[in-house]
TrEMBL record:
Keyword Transmembrane helix listed: yes
Protein name: Uncharacterized protein
Organism: Beauveria bassiana
Keyword annotations from UniProtKB, A to Z: Membrane, Transmembrane, Transmembrane helix
Source organism superkingdom: Eukaryota
Cross-referenced PANTHER family: DUF3176 DOMAIN-CONTAINING PROTEIN
Membrane-spanning parts: 137-155
Length: 240
């Protein structure tokens, strides 16, 4: 049995039996007599099927296997599904019977009961399903490694901000309300805002937020749009 499903490998078939008449120990029964000792059967173990069970199976199978079929110009009618299966299995009747007897044997093996109350053990091995957890220790290093990298990045950012004397309000939009705009920028805006692609042209001018002598923060122009150094200078001025 594997996960509730019967799996097996048939080595051989031992189906030789003999009928033993009723005694004080048992009723009429069919005993399997050719099971080899190499199967490690228990001492004095007897593999039997009662005669009543065999008769019951015979009566049950007789009702299933008795029937008829009719071939009318290539159209075949069957009295039951069993008769159709037997008809289709005639070319390989031995294989069909092997499957049928194997299914009956499995039924006895899975649902049969031990009649011997003094010896209730089977030779063999048993398995039991259990939870299994496999830990990949390399992945256990991933969370602390991410934490260490994030802490390093945090302290590096704090150190760089202190070193460059970055204003505490940098990144906030509220101080923009208290900043002034240089008259040159207003002059450029008034002349280009109403022209075609004027805003695109105006956007190429370098602008920086600088602190004036009076202490006020002022947006002032840095370079002209035609200056090839404008992009680099804008970057450094914005960083300042």
């Amino acid at each position: 049995m594997n996960d509730g499903h019967l799996s097996q490998r048939i080595i051989s078939v031992w189906n030789e039996t003999q009928l033993e008449k009723k005694t004080n120990a048992h009723l009429d029964e069919h005993v399997f007599i050719n099971v080899p000792n190499e199967m490690n059967t228990l001492e004095h173990s007897r593999y039997t099927i009662s005669a009543r069970a065999v008769e019951t199976i015979r009566r049950f199978m007789d009702n299933l296997t008795n029937g008829w079929y009719q071939d009318n110009g290539g159209r075949v009618n069957f009295s039951s599904d069993w008769i159709e299966a037997i008809h289709d299995g005639l070319p390989a009747m031995s294989e069909w019977m092997d499957q049928l007897t194997l299914s009956l044997s499995n039924e006895f093996r899975r649902h049969g009961k031990l009649r011997d109350t003094f010896s209730t053990s089977y030779e063999g091995s048993a398995t039991k399903l259990a939870n299994f957890v496999k830990v990949k220790w390399l992945w256990m290093l991933y969370p602390p490694l991410c934490l260490i990298v994030s802490l390093y990045y945090l302290f590096a950012t704090i150190s760089a901000s202190v070193r460059d004397d970055v204003a505490i309000w940098k990144g906030d939009s509220m101080p923009m309300l208290f900043s002034c705009i240089h008259p040159d920028i207003l002059h450029l805006g008034s002349g280009m805002i109403d022209t075609h692609k004027g805003l695109d042209e105006l956007g190429r001018h370098g602008i920086a937020l600088a602190k004036s002598e009076s202490g006020a923060w002022v947006f002032e122009p840095t370079v002209e749009p035609d200056d090839h150094r404008g992009r680099l200078r804008r970057v450094f001025r914005w960083r300042d």
